[in-house]
Amino acid sequence: MFTRDIPYGYEILIENLMDPTHVRYAHYGILDREGGCPMEINIDQMHKYGFTANQSYGRSKFVPPCLHISFGKSARRLSFIFMCIPVSPGNNRLIFIFGRNFAVWIDRFVPRWMYHISQNLVIDSDMYLLHIEEKKLMETGFSNWENVCFVPTKSDAKVIAFRKWLKKYSGGRIDWGNKFDESLPPTPPREQLMDRYRSHMVNCSSCNGAYKGLNAVKVVLQVFSGAAVAMVAATKQGIISVATRNTLAVAAVLCYVGSKWLFHFVHKCFNYHGYNHAFK
Questions:
Q1: Known InterPro entries for this protein (predicted)?
Q2: pLDDT tens sequence across 221-246
Q3: pLDDT digits (tens, 9 = 90+) for 44-82
Q4: Which of 80, 102, 144, 191 has most Cβ atoms within 10 angstroms of its Cβ?
Q5: Are residues 10 and 140 in the same domain?
Q6: Which of 153, 188, 223 is the last residue of a domain?
Q7: Phi-psi label, residue 54: left if phi above 0, alpha if psi -120 to 50, beta otherwise
Q8: Euclidean distance between CA atoms 224 and 243, whole angstroms
């Protein structure tokens, strides 16, 4: 299971999850490197309890107000369960469960935090785009969504169905009552917008444990590097052999380089990883 606080609204997140064709563009270089292709999606009858969609690779279901499920048709089945929980205007929490009926033994050996690194990267890769999209839609009004967004293809069927459901059964938006007004929070700096530490890591026991463990290893490497340098510098010529001195010097350099690499790895994986489509 994976959770993360997302700095854009519930409607934008569900709409994004229902659009399979955006993957080849918004997540270019992570999930796919090829161009887009036609994809036909057909919607079963929509009602207040949601709708079901059929597509070439499987089926998906929207169960209002927060649940979107996708699953394959083949014997080796994958399933993706997304729970999108509104928190406040411009903020929501994503809970994601990835299931499969094959190669489950891998999970005994691969810790969850290693999966979470790639899942965070996928979310980060289009986070800024979606955050700005919500701002643009707010300027024109969510009720005018169909007049602002151009959705001409059959692959847009789920997005259109969701917007129709939202308009018919929820007035096109979330009713926050008296708790919030409908204004969106200001856009923070990019590092804060895409911050992984507060939005995911502190609430994830696996990532939190890895973060503390890797930082401890970094400190050990730094201490050993400093101790090795001090030992070489303080030891008089002849007390230890030349080979030992050279070994200590090499070990000190390797530990120092390792600690620096680990510092950047921890920061990129657990704090902030900038993503620029122009370089993909």
A1: Cholesterol_7-desaturase (IPR050584), PaO (IPR013626)
A2: 999 999 988 888 877 766 777 788 88
A3: 888 999 999 998 888 999 999 999 999 888 778 889 999
A4: 80
A5: yes
A6: 188
A7: beta
A8: 18
